[in-house]
Design brief:
Rossmann fold; Ubiquitin-like (UB roll); 4 domains; globular; binds iron/sulfur cluster
């Protein structure tokens, strides 16, 4: 049981995380201080890095294991958790050795859980089931089973926050058809173009970029990619040929996709059988959603809206369309569109509704990461990016969007023409709102303040 002194120390840790503007390093970027509330029994660090081609978390686990472990210990104590586990793949031998060494040296109350190399091992719901054998209810969050999941990259930022250093830099992977795939570390607001320079230069000719991993990343045109800035949630930049499988999938219009779904879905149910959420016992059956979409077209509104509503349970991992479907259909894209509609109508799935036992076939139906990479057409880049090298760079100018995370954007506290030092607060989270502070990532002069704050180095 925590003493008042422990509680004060815990509040200090969470306040330091809040001051530093730490948000989840991948995904939507949930502000970390807000996540560390409630009855937390088990702190789980996500070191799965399950997106094929990303190497950022693996780099951090090898080269900053001591910081990750000490931050995990501090957070575990701060929230009064009984357990802390770092979950990573059994095949990450160097990462495991570095973390085990740090745990030993610090005599840290942290254990390691090794998982098979499958996708999406890093999905919050999947990783909780892997580590605790408990299933988060449909539409629930890890806290519903007493867990909090935090990425190892986030925990590295927590370690800096506990030294009084705010989030100013970002580690990310630059991979694909670049000359020198590598992990880079750059100030927030650095353009993707400058990151590409660190990876051997901007590729000539035509290409597309993916911000993030090949399975869940966001596709960008060449032009948009070159001017996009690195933000707190950027985990990687992938450069792929314009005729790659991923590029071709994105080119299919919504209308064409529906027509194909109606005419070509053979109801084989492979999308459902391999869906990681369905395998956990959640009532998500993409093959039924696809059938309903066809019915909708043929019979107007004669559909079971509960089936369409279940799209809200989809994590958009993409297994159904890139790995499972033999007809190259896109259940994930259908679900993503339905989720937007449901959000607009404020329709939610009731937490726990329709929960079943996990599938007895779950173990055998996990999708091996390398096979997923092959199916998505990026296998040739799979082993090109290592985990030993790091490229660093500081640009002459950075563009820092205020909205870098889920929730309300912070409010600018600087003006045009003002000089700022690296690490200085430039936008503050509104009192009481779910938000995160933003700090200058380089020293310089404020060039403009709008939806983004631009800072230019002097001299
Ligand atoms: S896997 Fe493809 S063809 Fe089979 S049911 Fe799902 S969407 Fe239809
Ligand atoms: S994207 Fe497909 S496989 Fe993944 S959770 Fe959604 S329906 Fe299931």
């Amino acid at each position: 049981m925590n003493t008042p002194a422990d509680e004060k120390k815990g509040l200090d840790v969470i306040a330091a995380i809040q001051r530093a503007g730490v948000v989840g390093c991948g995904g939507a970027g949930f502000p970390t201080h807000a996540k560390l509330k409630g009855e937390i029994h088990h702190l789980i660090l996500n070191g799965a890095e399950c997106e094929p081609l990303l190497r950022t978390d693996r780099y951090l686990m090898i080269h900053h294991a001591a910081q990750i472990v000490s931050a995990a210990t501090a957070v575990k104590q701060a929230v009064g958790a009984q357990k802390c586990t770092i979950a990573l793949k059994g095949s990450y031998q160097e990462e495991t050795a570095a973390l085990e060494r740090a745990i030993r040296e610090q005599d840290a109350p942290v254990s390691i859980h090794k998982m098979r190399s499958f996708y999406p091992a890093g999905d919050e719901q999947v990783i909780v089931a892997e580590v605790t054998q408990q299933v988060i209810p449909p539409a629930g969050i890890p806290l519903d089973v007493g867990c909090v999941v935090s990425n190892v990259g986030t925990m590295y930022n927590v370690s800096l926050a506990l030294e009084g250093k705010p989030v100013t830099h970002k580690y990310l992977t630059v991979s694909g058809m670049v000359k020198k795939p590598t992990v880079v570390c750059v100030p927030l607001g650095t353009s993707f173009a400058q990151c590409l320079e660190l990876a051997g230069g901007i590729p000539e000719g035509d290409w597309i970029a993916i911000a993030g991993g090949p399975m869940m990343g966001r596709r960008l045109t060449r032009e948009l990619a070159l001017e996009s800035p690195v933000i707190k949630t950027t985990s990687g930049i992938l450069i792929l040929p314009p005729d790659s499988l991923l590029a071709r999938k994105e080119q299919i219009t919504l209308l064409h996709m529906y027509q194909r779904a109606r005419s070509a879905c053979i109801q084989c149910r492979r999308c459902t059988d391999l869906c990681p959420r369905h395998l956990l016992g959640h009532p998500l059956e993409p093959h039924r959603i696809m059938r309903q979409m066809a019915t909708l077209a043929l019979e107007g509104n004669a559909v079971d809206s509960r089936i369409l509503k279940s799209a809200a349970l989809c994590c958009e991992c993409g297994i159904c369309e890139t790995f499972a479907c033999p007809m190259q259909l896109q259940p994930r894209r259908v679900n993503a569109m339905l989720k937007q509609e449901l959000a607009k109508e404020k329709v939610r799935w009731n937490k726990g509704e329709g929960q079943r036992e996990p599938s007895p076939w779950r173990e055998g139906r996990k999708a091996p990461t390398k096979r997923v990479a092959a199916r998505v057409g990026v296998l040739e880049y799979y082993d090109r990016c290592g985990t030993s090298g790091l490229e660093e760079g500081t640009p002459a100018q950075v563009t820092l969007p205020l909205q870098q995370h889920i929730g309300a954007p912070p409010v600018a506290v600087v003006k045009e023409g003002e000089r700022v030092s690296a690490g200085q607060l430039i936008a503050a989270a509104p009192e009481g709102a779910l938000s995160a502070n933003l700090h200058a990532s380089i020293e310089g002069v404020i060039v403009s303040v709008g939806n983004a704050i631009v800072i230019r180095k002097e001299g």
